[in-house]
Amino acid sequence: MDRRNHPLYLAWRRFLRSKPGVFSGLVLALLYLMALFAGFIAPNNMTVQHPSASYQPPQRVYFWREGRLVRPYVYQLRRERDPITFISSYKEDRNQPTPIRFFIAQGEPYRFLGLKTNWHLFGVAQAEGYFFPLGTDQFGRCLFSRILVGSQVSLTVGVIGVLISFALGILLGGISGYYGGWVDTLIQRTTEVLLSIPRLPILMALSTVIPTSWPSTYVYLGIIAVLSFIGWAGLARVVRGQVLALREMEYVTAAVAQGASNLRIILRHLVPNLSSYLIVTATLALPGYIIGESALSFLGLGIKEPMASWGLLLKDAQNFQSLSLYPWLLTPGLLIFVSVLAYNFFGDALRDAADVRSRD
Questions:
Q1: Per-residue CA distances from 320 to 50, 139, 336 (Å)
Q2: Does residue 327 belong to any structural domain of this protein?
Q3: Which domain does 175 fall in, by range?
Q4: Under a CB-based contact definition with an 8 Å cutoff, are residues 265 and 258 in contact?
Q5: From the CB of residue 212, how many other CB atoms can be counted at a distance below 10 Å?
Q6: Of 72, 270, 300, 336, which alpha carbon lies 20 to 30 A from 3's?
Q7: Are residues 177 and 262 both part of a single domain?
Q8: pLDDT value, residue 360
Q9: DSSP state, residue 136
Q10: Is residue 273 a part of any domain in this protein?
Q11: Are the C-beta atoms of residues 134 and 74 closer than 8 Å to each other?
């Protein structure tokens, strides 16, 4: 077969025609790379508190000094209190320029793939001061570092949750559609019960089952289990309908005549014919998991300290005073918006690419 007429090549060409889809794919790739190398990119340890830098605004990066281009540097910020309003503010100490160093080994230690290291992409020498690119929170912790580490939770909870829920949905939907009878009735009544329960209340109810004494890792796994438990029902119904239409096809009849087992027919003959639909559905389902985890953490029912996620970080900006005085605390919400929007555009582009009726 000519490579130019191969279905995958034609689908790739259709995908490349979608500029929003390609751009969204690049944005998602960048976000996941940042999450993977969060410890290396983060200039500070996310748990280290700096009481003297509480709610410090982002530091401005300078490239020019005395009329010439120099190494990027920042000024250290000093807190001042207004004697009339008693409101604290920060001003740059122009007498203390701090150069930003790249690939420094004097940073705070972290673990990457089980190995302990203190190499960082950028930062400042600890003896010279601190660099907070996106400011700090109420405890003086680096918001940029916390966002990077929190992305590991917010971005991976969707991937793992989709893998689990899709495994359940494909298996149960395939069995329901292929066998029919009382098996089909039992599975479909179960899915109807799950689909009839509002999503947020069941998330809140099931999250309360997770003991508060659990460590952060167990809570993370519990959140994934909760989201996966309620995410497979809708997919199972669609897979059932597709299997009902495919089980009478000639290749299925031939596989039965050759003595193939029912499970093999479902997994090797029926499910692969749904691959394009499943891929598109997965990309469109991922934003729901990100928003679900963020909502639980924002309400205090999800990820707990010292772990971090975008929803937990956004909790600090839940009142008007915080929004007006410390607008940089909204940065996690902006990343949630960008990632969800990117997934939607990426999923739409994949859906159009998988449509064989599209013109090539």
A1: 24, 19, 20
A2: yes
A3: 3-36+149-354
A4: no
A5: 7
A6: 270
A7: yes
A8: 52
A9: B
A10: yes
A11: no
Q: Which residues lie across from 97 on neighbouring strands?
A: 75
Co-location of 136 and 185 in the same domain: no
In a domain, 183, yes or no: yes
What SS3 string covers 331-353? Answer: HHHHHHHHHHHHHHHHHHHHHHH
* 331-38-25 Cα angle (round to 5): 70
Assign 91 to helix, strand or coil: strand
Alpha helices (H) in 209-330, listed in sequence order: 216-229, 233-246, 250-257, 262-265, 275-298, 310-314, 320-325
- pLDDT tens-digit map of 310-356: 888 888 777 767 777 888 988 998 999 999 999 989 988 888 787 65
Residue 25 resides in a domain:
yes
Say how far apart CA 240 and CA 218 lie, in whole Å.
Answer: 33
Q: What's the CA gap between 243 and 111, in Å, rounded?
A: 46
Amino acid at 215: P
Cα(206)–Cα(301) distance, integer angstroms: 10
- List pLDDT tens digits, range 20-44: 989 999 999 999 999 999 888 988 8
Each residue of 57-107: pLDDT tens digit?
A: 999 999 988 788 888 999 998 888 777 766 778 888 888 788 888 887 666
Question: Residues near 343 by Cβ (< 8 Å), separated by ≥ 6?
Answer: 24, 28, 283, 284, 286, 287, 290
* φ, ψ (nearest 5 deg) of residue 38: -60, -45
Burial call 332-351: b when 16+ CB within 10 Å, e when fewer: bbebbeebbebbbbbbbbbb
What is d(CA 305, CA 300) in angstroms, rounded to the nearest whole number?
10
Write down the residue that tokens 């309400």 correspond to: 299
Q: Are residues 225 and 311 in the same domain?
A: yes
Residues 229 and 80 in one domain: no
